[in-house]
Write a structure and sequence with these properties.
heterodimer, A: 289 residues, Rossmann fold, nine-stranded mixed β-sheet, B: alpha/beta, Nucleotidyltransferase, domain 5, five-stranded mixed β-sheet
Chain lengths: 289, 107
């Protein structure tokens, strides 16, 4: 099984377009494909597969800590342990749910057993069959939940497929790190605007720290301030595809079709991209052994 | 009574910082001893929950009143929970703000 994460830094650069196109291309190459939508706050890969068949749905449960005030002595050990400032202590400990990362540490360090954990439904995972050897899996965060990482972790835990394509959330935070952790290759979809270049550079800091191999797909490549090419040249990053600002992409979206099924030209482009990525991952694996 | 004001620098100029949770420093004035001191706000560099962390710092320092230009919604909830009285005022010299506050209380 090989895993490819499609990520971006900046939002709205074309992650889903590229994810869906790549998944379709791998499928055309004869691979069994799992397309995994980890953009759990607003998953939308399913938009492109109106004729797919739902095959499963399950709830994802998380343990949320609570303080039993009668038992709390206000010793502050949980407060000192928490890295996310999710606990304050004014006489008694108080947990701020929206900042809690559910690490369970407060419960472990409490000497009075004053912290209990309650089950909360943080989201769900849905699966569809797109084709005989092509599945879509989607994480959907419950409205009001603030921490998607746990759900992303479970969503990307796939047991099926020769190729797994992960559509990541935007940004450079915890949820993105969770989505790209352990993949064979990161495809960064970027645009060459001041905002786009800034976020791309931030994103590169994350991939460097996580020691992940990456390539760039340059979207809206006819709009340029010269930033992306410079960053890629400086860092030796390959730009493996350039997509101009084209009507075809908007049309395919409006018709709920992936770009590979919609356009002959882009079918060819995505097929060669898929091959390039497969070769690269194979080479990396060979070099590692 | 201890009164806290978020300030831009460690002194001697004590201009208010317009932010609360992300302010760099707090000036804390004790109306009993008539002395003030500047402390650092750990919330300044906190990744998340700067507001609640700042409230914790004030509570630990024994602050009863906060004078700030803007208090975020999360910090506001925490101030209520910590029983710290707060007032949102125009950004100004912190010493003048505290003087005006004490005067309004007849102190």
């Amino acid at each position: 099984m090989i895993k490819i994460a499609v990520a971006s830094g900046k939002g709205g650069t074309g992650k889903t377009t590229v994810s869906v196109g790549l998944a379709r291309a791998f499928s055309l190459l004869g691979k069994s494909v799992a397309l995994v939508d980890c953009d759990v706050e607003e998953p939308n890969c399913h938009v492109f597969f109106p004729e797919s068949r739902a095959i499963s749905r399950k709830d994802v449960i998380s343990l949320v800590p609570h303080v039993e005030e009668d038992l709390c002595s206000g010793c502050r050990r949980c407060y000192e342990f928490c890295h996310f400032n999710a606990i304050v202590v004014f006489d008694k400990a108080r947990i701020l749910d929206e900042f809690c990362h559910r690490c369970g540490g407060c419960n472990l360090v409490c000497p009075k057993g004053a912290i209990s954990e309650e089950e909360v439904r943080i989201g769900e995972i849905l699966e569809w069959e797109v084709g005989e050897r092509f599945r879509l899996r989607e994480g959907r965060l419950t409205v009001g939940q603030a921490n998607p990482s746990e759900l992303i972790k479970e969503t990307k835990d796939v047991s099926w497929g020769e190729v797994v394509v992960i559509d990541c959330p935007p940004g450079t935070g915890c949820s993105v790190m969770e989505a790209i952790e352990g993949v064979d290759l990161v495809v960064a979809v970027v645009e060459d605007t001041p905002f786009g270049v800034h976020d791309f550079e931030k994103f590169l800091l994350v991939t460097e720290k996580m020691a992940l191999d990456k390539v760039v797909v340059w979207n809206r490549a006819d709009i340029s301030i010269g930033g992306i090419t410079k960053v890629c040249a400086d860092k030796g990053i390959d730009i493996v595809m350039s997509i101009p600002f084209m009507r075809e992409f908007q049309e395919s979206y409006a018709r709920r079709k992936d770009i590979v099924s919609f356009s002959q030209r882009w079918r060819d482009e995505f097929l060669s991209l898929a091959k390039v990525l497969l070769n690269r991952i194979e080479e990396n694996k060979r070099d590692a052994t | 009574m201890k009164i806290a004001v978020p300030v831009l620098g460690p002194g001697p100029d004590l201009m208010m910082d317009e932010r609360f949770g992300r302010a760099r420093f707090f000036w804390i004035y004790d109306s009993n001893s008539k002395k003030g001191e500047v402390i650092e706000n750990p919330g300044y560099s906190a990744a998340t929950a700067a507001g609640p962390a700042a409230v914790q710092t004030l509570k630990d320092a024994g602050v009863e009143v906060l004078l700030a230009a803007n208090v975020g919604p999360k910090a506001r909830d925490m101030l209520v929970a910590a029983k710290i009285e707060y007032h949102e005022i125009e950004p100004q010299d912190a010493q003048k703000a505290v003087e005006a506050f004490l005067k309004s209380r007849g102190l």
